[in-house]
Amino acid sequence: MKRLFALLAATLLTACASTSPNAPLDPGPLPPVEYLIGPGDNINIIVWRNPEVSQSVPVRPDGRITTPLVEDLEASGKTSTQLARDIEKALSRYIQQPVVTVIVTGFVGTYDRQIRVIGQAARPQSLPYRTGMSLMDVLIAVGGITEFAAGNRASIIRDVNGTRQQFTVRLSDLLKRGDISADVPMRPGDVLVVPESFF
Length: 199
Description:
Helix content is 21%, strand content 27%. By secondary structure, it is of the alpha+beta class. It folds into two domains: 65 residues, wza like domain (wza like fold, 2-Layer Sandwich), CATH 3.30.1950; 84 residues, Outer membrane lipoprotein wza domain like (Outer membrane lipoprotein wza fold like), CATH 3.10.560. The protein has a five-stranded mixed beta sheet with strand order 7-6-10-8-9, with no helix packed on it. Strands 2-1-5 form a three-stranded antiparallel beta sheet, covered by helices on one side. The N terminus is likely disordered.
């Protein structure tokens, strides 16, 4: 009997130590993530002492930009500093020692860093990831969930160490009951799936 009790206790302790697949793993705070320019971003290019080649341009769907004297320059996937150096290099054929500053004024970001919300959200959409973003921030941005949503059966699809994993989240508890324990950190590239309720 004592052996059976010890075995049962050991099994329970092991079960308590394991992580539930129904709750997203919190890998702790992310290291600072530099913003990478993506298709759909708007950027302001300032060339010091050369206002005729300074202008605001959108990043095209193919990830490239075109400015005076610089055609079809790849912008997507670069930081604003990296893009500024590339523009300086391209302009150096026409302007002696150009000094360029790039300011991102409209944020979309690269596709792999966006958070996508699909299903029974009030406004399903892709959102640019912001440092420290939580599930509650995402729900505010999409206007919550519809009356037909099965909020507590929603899930986050996340890339964890190169493999896609799916974790259950409790949207109804968070939104309707104010249960802050249901709020979880979001990560770049997360997909929030809100299924429809079956009556």
